[in-house]
Design goal:
The complex is a heterodimer of chains A (173) and B (202). Chain A is of the alpha/beta class and 173 residues long. Helix content of chain A is 42%, strand content 20%. In chain A, strand 4 and strand 5 form a beta hairpin. Chain B is 31% helix and 17% strand. Chains A and B meet through helix 1, helix 2 and helix 4 of A and helix 1 and helix 2 of B.
Chain lengths: 173, 202
């Protein structure tokens, strides 16, 4: 009888622990799905009927460093397009980076688009701990709701092709 | 007999709980390393007893560098401030993310007339393969492999399992230790804290 009680209480403990570890270990953002709540360190910009491209990076990641000029080029192309300028936003989230470290990255690569710090890895955990760099494309619907249309690890590749792909996948006009 | 069965049951439950706890410990990892990073899980934060202190002359050492040749701490005496960055092991999560960050702030070290020396207890071929993933590093990477961890042991930062602590020492041009951070092995020290210490050297 004692053994059964002990067994039940240990099973309960295990279930609780498993539950809590599963809530920490979120899965990567899925195409067709929505972003989890990432407040208070980041809130999704809401360009009406527009698109938000999110780069998950780290100042400490060699690939993100190498990719920085290419991401700047993407931003410049968005800004240079009279159509995309108002509809498409580009933001970066520095996972595991303090504000100081994000600032070092910003200055080093002359980054003009907004960067957010995720010093305690909270956002990183909510997004399923992606390796970096990782790009997420989000379409903002007219009613303010949103839908993920792109979620991928690795570099952008050719900037023009990437931009065209973002426009196509999001259905942006 | 019944008691023994109970304790066996408890031990296996404990093992499951520990495995779950380890599986949830992680950090941001660059895709530069693909799937090649070994995750040792969460470790005892500090597992050694420091043998040096601030204000003391830093023990000299001569170690082989990945780029070839040997580097001695004493060669910087009277010329450069020195930052020693010991990291526990190649191909592990936090270490793989630490030096690439230092690699883009050479100007910050230069501004304070400081050189950075990266040190682990790994051998040269392992360090060569690992640091190649980080891009071209501007600072020497030294191997404290043979005799195993001799320098880490001299500084009192060799852990009981044979790897070094994640530790930073700032040494001024006179060879005096000015700052010591034996950091929680599971976490990356903040860049801001290190730069603040370099600013104090003036």
């Amino acid at each position: 009888m004692v053994k059964v009680k002990l067994g039940i209480s240990i099973m309960l403990m295990l279930m609780m622990l498993l539950g809590s570890s599963m809530s920490i270990a979120a899965s990567l953002p899925a195409v067709g799905g929505v972003l989890p709540d990432l407040s208070p360190n980041f809130s999704l910009p809401k360009p009406k009927d527009g698109v938000v491209i999110i780069e998950i990076f780290s100042m400490y990641c060699p690939y993100c460093q190498k990719e920085a000029p290419n991401v700047n080029k993407l931003y410049d192309k968005i800004q240079a397009s009279s159509n995309l300028k108002s509809k498409m936003r580009l933001v970066g989230i520095g996972v595991g980076n303090s504000s100081y470290e994000v600032d070092v990255f910003r200055k080093k690569y002359n980054i003009s688009f907004p960067l957010y710090a995720d010093g305690d890895f909270k956002i990183h955990k909510s997004l399923g701990e992606p390796r970096t760099p990782y790009f997420i494309g989000v379409k903002i619907n007219p009613d303010g709701s949103h839908r993920i249309f792109h979620s991928k690890l690795g570099e952008l590749g050719d900037v023009d092709a990437f931009l065209a792909e973002m426009v196509r996948l999001s259905g942006l006009k | 007999m019944k008691k023994r069965a109970n304790s066996k049951f408890l031990i296996s439950c404990g093992a499951i709980i520990m495995t779950l706890a380890i599986a949830t410990a992680a950090g941001a990892i660059s895709d530069a390393y693909k799937e090649n990073i070994y995750n040792p899980g969460t470790l005892k934060p500090i597992d050694s007893k420091l043998k040096v202190k601030v204000g003391q002359l830093a023990p000299d050492f001569t170690l082989p560098a990945v780029a070839g040749g040997k580097v001695a701490l004493s060669q910087y005496r009277g010329k450069k401030n020195v930052v020693l960055s010991f990291v526990p092991a190649a191909w592990t999560p936090v270490c793989s993310d630490q030096w690439p960050g230092y690699n883009i702030v050479r100007d910050m070290f230069d501004a304070h007339d400081a050189i950075l020396l990266g040190i682990t207890v790994d051998n040269i071929p392992t360090l060569f393969s690992w640091t190649n993933q980080m891009g071209k590093l501007w600072f020497p990477v030294l191997s404290d492999f043979h005799p195993h961890g001799k320098t880490a042991r001299r500084y009192g930062i060799l852990r009981t399992d044979g790897v070094s602590e994640r530790a930073i020492f700032v040494i001024d041009k006179k060879g005096i230790i000015r700052y010591i951070d034996v950091h929680d092995i599971n976490q990356r020290p903040s860049l801001e804290a290190l730069i603040t210490e370099l600013e104090k050297l003036k």
